[in-house]
Design brief:
nine-stranded parallel sheet, 261 residues, TIM Barrel, alpha/beta
Length: 261
């Protein structure tokens, strides 16, 4: 059983808080500190962003974080190094890498998966690698026990949902709206209807992200989802509090976690 599966089992029906930050923003040492803060304030699963120059799903806040990290020359190897250091003190909290296929492809699927598993990564979400094209990478992930996380959009057809369900593990990530991260047009009633429909085909937990940024939206989405995924709110807080990132982030995470209790 993977760490992700264990967390959802331990939550026993309670909604998980999945917290996203971009690795290397503002630097790798601070990222490690921020990961520890996320856990201390109630994060159940850490989603660690792999910086990439040409994002497709990230809004301006996370795009800017990736650019700051890339200016620091943060690579996929650096991301795995941060995970390795985190695992020296925390063997419990699941870590999902979220990013794009190019860095993984460049490193080589087998090399990447072996290195990720050794570092202590638990899952991977590659935004631009759809279920139809992931078989080679997926096979290596299965061989090394890494969960394969997929995005499902409001426009995803029933046929594709079934395909994703046949390959996904850990949890699936439902995109709550048509747009990019940080958008604000969140229709909770529509999300609820969509999740109810998805549960006909998906047997693993369903997390919901995009547009979730305050206690009210966390509470409402938490009532219908297995996990609430927050990113832009945390990344924005980090950017707005240079030199005091950890102190600023802690109460924000605690506030959103409290909305799920």
């Amino acid at each position: 059983m993977s760490r992700i599966q264990q967390i959802f089992q331990q939550l026993d029906g309670r909604t998980a808080l999945v917290s996203y930050i971009t690795c290397g923003d503002p630097d790798v040492d601070t990222t490690l500190q921020l990961m520890q803060v996320l856990v201390e304030e109630g994060t159940d699963i850490i989603e660690l962003g792999v910086p990439f120059s040409d994002p497709m799903a990230d809004g301006p806040v996370i795009q800017a974080a990736s650019q700051r990290a890339l200016r620091n020359d943060v690579s996929l190897h650096d991301v795995l190094s941060v995970v390795t250091k985190f695992r020296q003190h925390n063997q419990k909290t699941p870590i999902v890498l979220m990013g794009y296929l190019n860095p993984v492809y460049h490193m080589g699927y087998e090399n990447f998966v072996q290195a990720a598993a050794k570092a202590g990564v638990d899952g991977l979400l590659t935004v631009d690698c759809p279920a139809e094209s992931i078989d080679d990478l997926h096979a290596h992930m299965q061989a090394h026990g890494l969960d394969c996380i997929f995005l499902i959009a409001p426009t995803t057809t029933e046929e594709r949902v079934k395909l994703i369900a046949s390959k996904a593990s850990g949890f699936v990530y439902y995109v709550s709206l048509k747009g990019v991260t940080g958008s604000s047009q969140l229709d909770v009633a529509e999300v609820s209807r969509r999740i109810e429909h998805l549960r006909q085909f998906i047997q693993i937990p369903i997390g919901v992200g995009f547009g979730i940024k305050d206690a009210e939206s966390v509470r409402k989405i938490g009532a219908v989802a297995d996990a609430v995924i927050v990113g832009s709110r945390f990344v924005g807080t980090i950017d707005q509090n240079k030199g005091h990132e950890a102190e600023a982030l802690a109460p924000v995470v605690a506030e959103l976690k409290q909305a799920l209790v």
